[in-house]
Specification:
Layout: E1 2-4, E2 13-15, E3 20-26, E4 31-37, E5 43-50, E6 55-60, E7 66-75, E8 78-95, H1 97-100, H2 109-115, E9 118-125, H3 134-142, E10 145-148, H4 158-170, E11 176-180, H5 194-197, H6 201-215, H7 219-246, H8 252-259, E12 294-298, H9 310-324, E13 332-335, H10 351-364, E14 368-371, H11 388-401, E15 413-419, E16 422-427, E17 431-433, E18 440-443, E19 449-451, E20 453-457, E21 460-464, E22 473-476, E23 486-488, E24 497-498
Parallel strand pairs: 2-8, 8-11, 8-12, 9-11, 12-13, 13-14
Antiparallel strand pairs: 1-3, 3-6, 4-5, 4-7, 7-8, 9-10, 15-16, 16-21, 17-23, 18-19, 18-22, 20-21, 22-24
Helix pairs in contact: 4-11, 7-8, 9-10
């Protein structure tokens, strides 16, 4: 028996300038030979490995960017060959619904699907399954790479698409492959197995609390509850589609008023994709241990208000993925949450805390970076349809973190100092104001923040408030939703801060 993982079928993109890892299934003890040849048939790399426990992993020496290669895998009388193999940059696009939002549903997405013709931009879609099963294994076996040509790409993450499209413009000789692996509504804890989560107190808390809330119910009970929930979603979708058809100019707030809010109350249970530890085995593990250029991540909404240690959980995920993908310097490019609130808020979003936790994680995870999205939120819409902005900002971030090239980055706070009743915040770049309310506050030793008067001196903010004689702390953009006021001279928003 010999079967390559579907990641290595026709049209695959292998990671350049890193050890290439080709894996799959084979009889234990079998000698598996893997060969990579260029478009002219010249031998690029060859290696032999011995399968164990029904699996094989062959290691090939690094290659430069190219297309038209052939990958051959053989064991005894069995042989498998994949053609049209490219070597380039490969990124995994992970996270929840804002990474999941498909190109066909994004602003400008349908035009891109209709017109974009670039066979050197390809993606591999990891199918969504909450449980390991015969159906899940069959879906993984039949997954394939898709090239971006007219009519293709509708189900690709829009953020990842715009990221890859910009990289292709910046590095036109380098193929780009996206491994699309995400699921809307998931916590950061969904992407680590239970064994890993148990290694931290916060991960264990997620697991234990989920169990207390009904995670230990029977599968039959869970499936019945899930069906009822899916029926409710179907009814809501039918109502909203009918209303929009009858009122094509209706804004989201009007649709919500007429049809009700999206019924987001997924049942807790053993088959839920939203359970902690649920998706590693069914999704991410199917592409491990492929060599990657980097990780893209857009997540945090589901954990807002649920944990005060999101930065630690995020760092744990990065460490786990780096271990699994056998690369302790694997670049991690994260998307900071934008502003957001419902039209009629039921309570605080707590996204301010998550934004700062994401920044803290960036600061202590080496080979990582984060883009600011403070100017890209939509009131009443948790899924902004502009995915070009985050995608292209991630590409700029990749220039800096991954490629060591000059990039347009978001300015951020670099420090502060007090001088009598003034507090000066030092920035990494000059900024300008584009709104009246600068969203700047200061506090004394008691930590009670008040609105600050501000003077902008290029890369310094001079803050004061008449009620605070000795300011100690400063913060920026600590609001649910407002117009982002401060931008770098490059047009990038100033990152929120708490100093």
């Amino acid at each position: 028996m010999l079967k390559a993982a579907s990641l290595f079928t026709d049209g695959a993109v292998l990671c350049r300038r890193k050890e290439i890892r080709v894996f799959g299934e084979a009889d234990s003890g079998a000698a598996v030979t893997v060969t990579l040849r260029d478009c002219c048939g010249n031998l690029l790399a060859r290696n032999v490995c011995t399968a164990g426990n029904g699996r094989f992993t062959a290691l090939l020496r690094p290659q430069e960017a190219m297309t038209g290669c052939t990958l051959s895998i053989s064991a005894g009388d069995e042989c498998f060959t994949a053609s049209d193999i490219a070597v380039g940059d490969v990124y995994l696009a992970g996270g929840q619904s804002n990474m999941e939002l498909e190109l066909q549903n994004a602003l400008g997405g349908r035009e891109a699907i209709r017109e974009h013709d670039d066979p050197m931009l390809r993606y591999y879609y990891v199918n969504k399954y909450a449980l390991v099963s015969d159906e899940q294994r069959a879906a993984a076996d039949h997954a394939r790479w898709t090239a971006i040509v007219p009519g293709a790409g509708g189900n690709l993450s829009a953020v990842a698409y715009f990221f890859a499209a910009k990289l292709r413009r910046l590095h036109p000789d380098v193929p780009v492959g996206i491994i699309n692996c995400n699921w809307g509504g998931t916590s950061v804890t969904c992407w680590m197995p239970e064994k890993t989560l148990r290694q931290t107190a916060e991960g264990a808390r997620y697991l234990d609390e989920y169990a207390r809330n009904g995670g230990n119910k029977t599968m039959a009970q869970f499936l019945a509850e899930e069906k009822a929930w899916q029926d409710e979603i179907a009814a809501w979708t039918e109502r909203t589609e009918a209303y929009r058809a009858a009122h094509p100019e209706a804004e989201t707030e009007e649709v919500d008023e007429a049809c009700g809010l999206y019924p987001w109350h997924p049942p807790v249970g053993p088959g839920s994709p939203f359970r902690p530890g649920g998706l590693h085995d069914t999704m991410t593990a199917t592409v491990i241990p492929a060599a990657l250029t980097g990780l893209l991540f857009y997540q945090g909404e589901q954990d807002a208000g649920y944990t005060g240690h999101y930065d630690l959980l995020l760092a744990q995920l990065v460490a786990f993925w780096r271990e699994q993908f056998m690369d302790d310097r694997l670049p991690f490019l994260n998307v900071q949450l934008p502003m957001w609130t419902e039209f009629k808020p039921l309570g605080p979003t707590h996204w301010q805390e998550i934004r700062l936790a994401q920044a803290r994680a960036r600061d202590f995870i080496r080979d990582s970076g984060m883009i600011c999205m403070l100017d890209c939120g939509e009131r009443g819409n948790i899924h902004p349809v502009d995915k070009k902005t985050p995608g292209e900002r991630l590409a700029e971030l990749a220039l800096d973190v991954v490629y060591g090239e000059k990039a347009e980055l978001c300015p951020r706070a670099a420090g502060k100092y007090a001088d009598d009743d003034r507090l000066t915040v030092l920035l990494t770049a000059p900024v300008r104001a584009e709104a009246e309310d600068l969203l700047l506050e200061i506090a004394g030793e008691d930590g009670r923040f008040v609105k600050a008067e501000a003077e902008i001196r290029e890369d310094r903010l001079i803050l004061h408030a008449g009620s605070i004689a000795r300011p100690v702390h400063a913060r920026y953009a600590w609001v649910e939703y407002a117009e982002a006021p401060l931008f770098g001279l490059n047009g990038q928003p100033l990152e929120p801060f708490l100093l």
